[in-house]
Design brief:
10 helices; 2 domains; alpha/beta; 2-enoyl-CoA Hydratase, Chain A, domain 1
């Protein structure tokens, strides 16, 4: 006899009334929920999906995020053919297989993560980028496996490992199999660390549940986008459970920075440059052809990367 479970996972990603209205089903995806400015698709892409009026960071899909962060044409994808199975024959309001097919059609992805190799500022990296558009970026067995394969790539090639998280947590339709991915991804991060390679974790809105409780919180350097929710559970759930009144910025990137859980909150427009400079600090310069000349990196703006100098000072670097 098949058991039918009717369940609903709620990740509260509302930003609070002071930051504008939360997402509504009737709002156009190109309309800013904070200041209500509206943009054409090409305008949003050119602005890295950041509102030019108020700085609100719109969601970014995995492939567009890769294009933003990496050198043009450098990304090489692996494991693109992996697909989630349905070993539990899970059905909630709809069959899991139906949800998977719908998510693949909507996003063009096989699952909620894209992995491979690329260069950033001329330096090679192994890359794992999540896509919230695929079943809320939930982590199931395929996400865990592809993350592990990306970490293996980093170790095999001796290059830094960079992940970009955007997730509602573990995928309930895979039950214990999804929860096991927390341990699996942590072991993959340990393998990168044992190889004495840097792991940089970038957390975007939202990074919650089993993802923030595993690999996303384990970076040697942890960066976050402004206003991103980084919390195991959303503020509404926490407040209802504990009965306590929370601060307005509970779980947001700025709060996590103040508490020391992230190293820097970096606007999207500065993220690629920040990542390139971190890689330059932690890795040797890229090889240059005999007749080639490597261009020097531009000088940082006055006061830039003060957070990194403070971090290195604390670690004695």
């Amino acid at each position: 006899m098949r058991l039918t479970a009717v369940a609903q996972i709620s990740v509260d990603i509302e930003r609070g009334p002071e930051e504008g209205e939360p997402h509504k089903a009737g709002r156009h995806p190109n309309t800013c929920p904070v200041c209500h400015s509206h943009y054409r698709d090409d305008e949003l892409v050119a602005a890295l999906r950041v509102c030019r009026q108020c700085g609100y960071h719109f969601p970014v899909g995995a492939r567009e995020r890769i294009a933003q962060l990496t050198d043009e044409g450098s990304f090489s994808e692996i494991a693109a053919d992996l697909r989630s199975a349905d070993p539990l024959a899970f059905v909630d309001l709809r069959p899991y297989t139906e949800r998977l097919s719908e998510a693949e059609l909507a996003t063009g992805l096989g699952d909620a993560i894209v992995v491979g190799t690329a260069t950033v500022g001329g330096r090679s990296v192994a890359l794992a980028v999540m896509d919230f558009g695929f079943l809320a970026g939930s982590m199931g067995s395929v996400v865990g496996e592809k993350f592990a394969l990306a970490a293996d790539l980093a170790v095999a090639h001796g290059v830094p490992f960079v992940s970009v998280a955007s997730s509602g947590g573990a995928r309930m339709q895979e039950n214990i199999l999804a929860l096991m991915q927390m341990a699996k991804t942590v072991m993959s991060v340990d393998a990168v660390r044992d190889a004495r390679l840097p792991y940089i974790s970038i957390c975007t809105h939202p990074t919650t549940g089993g993802v923030i409780a595993s690999f996303a919180a384990l970076g040697d350097i942890i960066l976050a986008e402004p206003g991103a929710l980084l919390s195991f559970a959303g503020p509404r759930v926490v407040q209802q459970t504990t009965g306590e009144t929370l601060t307005k910025d509970f779980g947001l990137a700025e709060s996590q920075l103040r508490l020391g859980h992230v190293d820097a909150v970096v606007p999207r427009g500065e993220l690629t440059e920040t990542l390139a400079r971190l890689l330059a600090l932690f890795t040797p310069p890229p090889e240059v052809e005999e007749d080639g000349v490597e261009e020097p990196a531009p000088e940082p703006a006055p006061g830039a990367f003060g957070w990194l100098r403070r971090l290195l000072g604390r670690s004695g670097g």
